[in-house]
Amino acid sequence: MSSTDSARAPALPPQHTKTVHYQMRVLHTADIHLGVKTYGRRDAATGLNSRLLDVRRSFESVVQRALNEDVDAFLFSGDAYHTADPTPTQQKIFAECLQPIADADIPIILIIGNHDHPVTFGRASSLDIFEYIDGDVHFFSKPAQQVPVIQTKSGPLQLIPLPWPVRSQIVSRDEYRKMKPDELRAFIEELYVNYVQRRTEEIRSRGTGVTQDGGEVRLSPETPTILAGHVTVQGAELSGSERTSLIASEPKFTVGQLAVSPIDYVALGHIHQHQNRNPDGHPPVVYAGSVERVTFKERDETKGSVLVTIDPDAAPGMPSRTSMSFQATPARPFVAVYVDARDTPTPTERILQAIEKKDVTDAIVRVRYRVEESQITAIDSARIRDALTGAEKVAAIERSVDPSERRRRTVVTRDSDLEDAMRQYVGQHDELQDLEDDLVSAALDLQNEIEATRQ
Predict the structure, then answer these.
(1) Where are the alpha helices (DSSP H) in 31-159?
(2) Residue pLDDT, tens place only, 214-223
(3) Which of 60, 173, 232, 299 is least surrounded by CB atoms within 10 angstroms?
(4) What is the pTM (predicted TM-score) of this model?
(5) DSSP output for 201-264
(6) pLDDT digits over 7-37, tens only?
(7) Domain range 24-328, its CATH number among 3.60.21.10, 3.30.365.10, 3.40.50.360, 3.90.1150.10
(8) Can the peptide bond before residue 221 be classed as cis, meaning omega within 30 degrees of 0?
(9) What are the sequence ranges of the domains in the chain?
(10) Residue spans of alpha helices (H) in 18-150
(11) How far apart are CA 400 and CA 369, in angstroms?
């Protein structure tokens, strides 16, 4: 394997590139997040968390699509894991999923995301291991000093890598340590915008790029070019699981700062909802989205991957040059049932009718119902649970009573895991109901970080 971040061999004489006549096909995916445990259970057959297996199934479907489409390159735009300290099991799963791509001699492009990189300066990222394994793997933890030119079976692919801007690497320099957060964010934005402008100018002026073996080759605006990044674009529609407060503090870029000629496609990770931020222009600026749902806020989002086709026969900058196709993964369905049963003498029947209208088979299900205090004794909890036997997991059956019943103090036993304890606590506080998934996710993230420090 060779890495464009590694030391380069002596430069070879630049070679003029002839006009290419082929179609370049690239599979674009991102945000795998192996390690998410929310609503998981222990799988009896493997001993693993069921949500880990869900993510693996969805990722394997993306890999299989790449093989079925016989793509020229497999592009991953960051966040392989949910934390920067993945377990050996999670690393093994990611490597096993990618192995069929390597076996097919398809170049693999890995861009570092914010979840892949540790906060501490000097520590290796969770993807660094892939720099030292066999296969045509191209790993980018920082912007490249020259445009990488990746050789595929259909011809060369020019790449402008834009990995997550690691602040710890920047603030390690004395001149930046005294910057305020807003000043540092503005500095990073300017740094990345200037970087994109320099790389695209080198392509337009037919400068020199670097090949896998460190040699130099002449760039060309006719050659397919992709900007691959893990960054935030202004106005991007956030997924339900993403924390708006964190996104707000990050460096952000406009579509115009990334959609620069002669780039044919901007392949992004970081935002979990699939979207094209440049639908009426060229090139497409696309978030592939995550491959698996995390919370009930994502229940209506389709998860998948993007097949990108670039046709060099079309003139650079023309919309006809790039096309894309989104395909869904078999992501675990999340089903939320809400019932207001206050106006019926048979509240259990009303709840069962609402469940029957939903397909709960193999889904993660949450039921919330509202009743009067006088109706409580009419609720048959056993029948409600029987109606949910086909579900993968019943996340919660929550009752809201008018007027509010006298609440019992939450009791957390030693047998309660962190997720159960958090949900019990939230269940006793109506004002926290809308924040339940966010609070549980934050607690599990903190638990993962604490466990990682003990290893």
Answers:
(1) 50-68, 88-103
(2) 899 999 999 9
(3) 173
(4) 0.82
(5) HHHHTT-EEE-TTS-EEE--TTS-EEEEEE-EETTPPPPTTS-HHHHHTS-EE-HHHHS-TT--
(6) 333 444 444 444 445 799 999 999 999 999 8
(7) 3.60.21.10
(8) no
(9) 24-328, 334-454
(10) 50-68, 88-103
(11) 6
